[in-house]
Write a structure and sequence with these properties.
three-stranded antiparallel beta sheet, elongated, Jelly Rolls, single chain, 13 strands, five-stranded antiparallel beta sheet, 11 helices, alpha+beta
Amino acid sequence: MWMQQHAGQQVPEEVFRLCEQAVRSLNNGSFGPDSAAFVHWVHVELLRTEGPPQKHRSEDEWRALFPRYPSSSTDDGYLLCFEPSNVDGIREALQKFGLCVVRVLTESQCEETVTGMFEEVNALRAYYGVVGPPVDPHNAATWQIENWPSKNRYLVKDCALHKQAFANRCNGCIYEVFAAIFRERRLHVSVDNWGIARGARDKPDWAVFEASLPHWDVSPWRFVEDVQQGLDPGYQGLVALTDQNLETGCHLTLPGCTHFMKQWCAERRQDWVGANQSFKAAEDDPVVPYMQPVPLRRGEMVIWSCGQLHGSIGSSSQDMRLVQYIRMYPAPEAGCKVGVSKNACSQSDPKNNGKNNNNNVTISCFSYIK
């Protein structure tokens, strides 16, 4: 009864004591010294099976919880983008919104990366014996699912190993940004995947197949527990290799989400979720409508907290959306309290029960990179 009347609040000890008295009374005082433990066990079972009541909030209350990441000063449909040298701005944006956008690659670096991406895609096609014309990012006739090295929604099933992918992982701008975020120059970098989404204007089923549903890369309960223990859950990142907007599809996030996660967990029935598994948001979760699209110019990188609800918008364009996933974190010898799950990366797929589609490894990214 107390939980129903105080939705979203922690049950105080006084309520547990009153429940204990009621239990003793119902059992004529014969329940013994275990009555308190029984009451707490019942409370845990209620949270596990029935779930706590959710607090009802007004539209204004929801909007106040999730502030919009600011638009570009040119009002061109894109968002505020920092230079890597703007350390204070990057840190403040991550603290307030749980994400930031940073300019990291030049036009020529993006072009070289796209060339390298499709060199690797077509090399993989040959390796796996795929028959048909080479995949051409400018020719939609080559985009049919049977023409790719993989039929999963990433269209490639191996981490990106082209030399240009490694050049980007050791890019000085990206390195300086993560060094500033962690206040640490001894960093490791993930060897992660390409991100490919086909233009789906004439093939709407491609948009559905390749869109990423709203999810967390780690269990929200695990995130809250890590934060309470003083552990930084770390950050994810992706670099846009093509211009990305609402038509081409783009990253989607819930700004300010990390500040709300403790309360979100207090209002949900807890499911057991492993440390290395993603957790998909329910379609009717009231936070989902407050997610914000993150359009990106070519060469911009969005970095977001591992505690941030995120996903992507499907394409309604004829153009591909291409990205490279990159994240950095302090090396073990740095002694930082940063949580790095073995396979917790942006490629975990909520449509695959949260399991990762590839085995990611790490390489060192040394402090002498300039």
